[in-house]
Amino acid sequence: MEGNLNLTLKIWRQKNAQTAGKFETYQVSGISEDMSFLEMIDVLNNRLIEEGDDPVAFDHDCREGICGMCSMYINGRPHGPNKGVTTCQLHMRSFSDGQTITIEPWRAEAFPVIKDLVVNRSAFDRIIAAGGFISVNTGNAQDANSLPIPKDDADEAFAAAACIGCGACVAACKNASAMLFTSAKISQLALLPQGQAERSKRAEAMVAQMDEEGFGACSNTGACEAECPKGISIENIARMNREYFSSVFTSK
Amino acid sequence: MAWLSKSLNSSLGKKLLMAITGLFLVSFLLVHCGLNATVFLNDGGVTFNEGAEFMAKNPIIRTMEIVLFGGLLLHILDGLRLWMDNKKKRPVAYAVIDGAANSKWYSRSMGLLGTLLLLFLIIHLKHFWYFSRLTDNLTEEHTLYNEMQAIFASPAVVAIYVLGCISLAYHLLHGFQSAFQSLGWNHPKYTPTIKCIGAAYAIIIAALFAAMPIAFHFNLIH
């Protein structure tokens, strides 16, 4: 797949969490505008391997925008310049010939760099483990329609559940806050009958874990919502505030 | 009460405190602006001076003055605490940030705007609060209205007041609607109205306040 884009890449290179990183500059040429951003990095890495250099480490898995693994901060924005896409769904036609592209890892106290562009997002797993679950009986699944759920509630819960946990909200936020992620996970359960058993304690437990992991507070700038590849709304953050304080002020 | 201090010290609690004290200060601005706008009645400051005297003597107002200083102090200290906590959350800064692509500059600059407002407030309190409450310079011959005329004769003072009002406008433009979001009040029925009222409030209050030093300076009111 040959093309005609020649680009200068400034990529953050960092050996591991213990050593300090720095930017390295690479030239890539003949890039097709039909390539995805990750394929462009693949081209660079092939060359680096052939030259005996260390390839650029980056997270990726499905490459179809649903797994939430890819996580590059491109020219000052998480997942690059386009709205509603992950890095793997960003294509090189969004860039122009001769452009310089700066690529950084997610930057947050709670997301330490593992290597180059790969960060450790297990803080999200611990927030989920603190309360992002429901209790169900074992055995056969019950009939799907045995619990009546209004369509509007189901839609709203589904919109929150679209969160893929990529961490772009944290990367975009000036405070490296995880409010959009945590609130989406609280909302998808708070809106459905299956989530009611643990509801009163869920928000308190998940917010406490979120704070302990070292994420910041919310300044309501709306940057997270604007950069979220799944379009998660900050209405969820308001719902989390309600869930949290109604639990704080009414629980026994 | 450990549960209360624990939750007020959480990331959500700090924002709740910010929202409650912020909205309280917003309500004060309405009273302050409304009373001061009586200078535009062009009655030589008669109504304004009567209002100022009522505010100075009424025991309920004097008590609220203490509550107001308390609320202001809480808002400042909580803001300072949030700013110090938040800046630790990204120890390695980005080399490139395209903030304009996803948010308004004033929503990202509330700490800076708040600091400018605090500096302005110190000057402003020295000009009028200190003069009227802590000195005995206020007489029948030299009323608060006369003091406004004297203070706003200086173009530098007028410039400082106008800059203070611009900081206030942007601080309110984000702060008003942001407070409702922190209180959990985000709903398709109300949020567009809240945002609209917030924007109108920010612009009208700041414009009215800014009009006062300008009008005094250019002798537009008598």
Automatic annotation (TrEMBL), chain A:
Gene3D superfamilies, per database record: 3.10.20.30, Alpha-helical ferredoxin
Transmembrane domains' residue ranges: none
Coiled-coil intervals: none
Pfam families registered for this protein in UniProt: Fer2_3, Fer4_8
Domain 4Fe-4S ferredoxin-type: 154-184
InterPro entries: 2Fe-2S_ferredoxin-like_sf, 2Fe2S_fd_BS, 4Fe4S_Fe-S-bd, Beta-grasp_dom_sf, Helical_ferredxn, SDH/FRD_Iron-Sulfur, Succ_DH/fum_Rdtase_N
Cofactor: [3Fe-4S] cluster; [2Fe-2S] cluster
Assigned protein family: Belongs to the succinate dehydrogenase/fumarate reductase iron-sulfur protein family.
NCBIfam families referenced in this protein's UniProt entry, alphabetically: PRK07570.1 (NF005746)
Name used for this protein in its record: Succinate dehydrogenase/fumarate reductase iron-sulfur subunit
Organism of origin: Aquirufa ecclesiirivi
Automatic annotation (TrEMBL), chain B:
Gene3D superfamilies named in the record: Fumarate reductase/succinate dehydrogenase, transmembrane subunit
Top-level taxon in the UniProt lineage: Bacteria
InterPro entries xref list: Cytochrome_b-558, SQR/QFR_C/D
Annotated signal sequence range: none
Keywords noted in UniProt: Membrane, Transmembrane, Transmembrane helix
TM stretches of this protein: 60-80, 112-131, 151-173, 194-216
Name the UniProt record assigns to this protein: Succinate dehydrogenase cytochrome b subunit
